Amino acid sequence: MLSCGRYYSASSVRVCCNVNGIHRRRYVAQPPTSAPASNHGAKQRKKENLKNQGTYTRFPDWIEKWNAKLFRRFGVGLIVFDLACFYHFAAHSWFPYITTVAVAGYWYVGLKDLGQTGHAIQRNFPVIGHVRYLFESLRPEVRQYFIEDDDMGIPFSRENRSLVYQRAKNQTDTLPLGTKINVYDAGYEWINHSIWPVTVPPENLRVMIGGPHCLQPYSASLLNVSAMSYGALGDNAIMALNTAASLGDFYHNTGEGGISRFHKQPGGDIVWNIGTGYFGCRDKNGFFFRRKVCRKCSFSSS
Q1: Distance from C-alpha of 248 to C-alpha of 269, rounded to nearest angstrom
Q2: Coil, strand, or helix at residue 129?
Q3: What is the DSSP code string of 192-260?
Q4: Can you spell out the DSSP letters for 2-27?
Q5: How many CB atoms lie within 10 A of CB 254?
Q6: Is the dihedral of CA 284, 290, 292, 293 positive or negative?
Q7: Taking 60 as the threshold, does the pLDDT of residue 8 lie above it?
């Protein structure tokens, strides 16, 4: 009975055989391998692989290796540079004093970063970690003015905002010679003029709220002003929306903030949105106060 197995090692191959219950071993030398590559060669191969994958960057590696030790070494070098400035420049020069302020600020910010425990980036990368927050603060403006297209903004693109601004200022909002939108793109929607338009009865454009037993039924439009409270918009916006509701014969939902005097001035129809907070219709204890609701619902536009 014969069974064999091979076990590989770095320097030789061990062949084990079991012949009739006798376990025998023998070693077969492997051919010598090439000498290990140097660190420089390994770095070059890694760089080539990253280039082939398209992920290679020339971003300096010292930023990734920055730590508290390098921060202190660099700070000591700045102190030496500052002393050299005092030695080299004349006493009446302001440059050494400027470098002193800069070095003092460097040490103050760095030691403060090392002592705090609220931000891991500042603690691991003292001083230079603040660059990340600087770029984050500049990111919205850079994206808006240099990267973002006119139709990429969310929830409203720059083109839509410009349209609203132009109409609000009573300016021309149309562009000649076609459109900048890709009308052949998948998902693009549009409205065509009908050659044989369908006549829509006026009663189909409204819906009656209240059944036959309702004392004051209301004929509501299909399109109205949705709930937006006074606290979120302000007085001028509320008056503008209610004026539009009055001109267009549709209602204006007040939102959970309740009815304000700015809702009443234009004279448009109002739907009072009473939320869980009972704003404008609660008593001193915070409970719903029916008498207060009746008093506010009987107001006049004046």
Answers
A1: 10
A2: coil
A3: PPPSSPPPPPGGGGEEEES-TT-SS-EEEESS-B----HHHH-HHHHHHHHHHHHHHT-EEE--TT---
A4: EEEEEEE-SSEEEEEEEETTEEEEEE
A5: 24
A6: positive
A7: no
Q: Residue 142 and residue 255: Cα distance in Å, rounded?
A: 35
Closest Cα partner for 58 from 50, 49, 68?
A: 50
What percent of the residues of the chain are helix, what percent strand, and what percent coil, each to the nearest 5? 40, 15, 45
Strands (E), 56-215: 206-209
For residue 292, name the pLDDT band (cuts at 50, 70, 90).
confident
Residue holding tokens 């800069």? 102
Dist CA 219 CA 250 (whole Å): 9
Q: What is the pTM of this model?
A: 0.44
Dihedral sign computed on CA atoms, order 210, 216, 217, 220: negative
CB 287 within 8 A of CB 262: no
The secondary structure element, H or E, covering residue 104 is helix 95-115
Question: Which one-letter amino acid corresponds to residue 286?
Answer: G
Lowest mean pLDDT among 15-24, 32-41, 44-53, 63-72: 15-24
DSSP 30-44: PPPPPPPPPHHHHHH
C-alpha to C-alpha distances, 231 to 59, 256, 261, 282, nearest whole angstrom? 48, 9, 13, 18
65: amino acid identity, one letter = K
Among 285, 281, 283, 284, smallest CA distance to 294 is for 281
Are 169 and 175 in contact by the 8 Å Cβ rule? The answer is no
Q: What is the DSSP letter of 144?
A: I
Q: Is 70 exposed, middle or buried (0-12, 13-18, 19+ CB in 10 A)?
A: middle
pLDDT digits (tens, 9 = 90+) for 99-120: 999 999 999 999 999 999 999 9
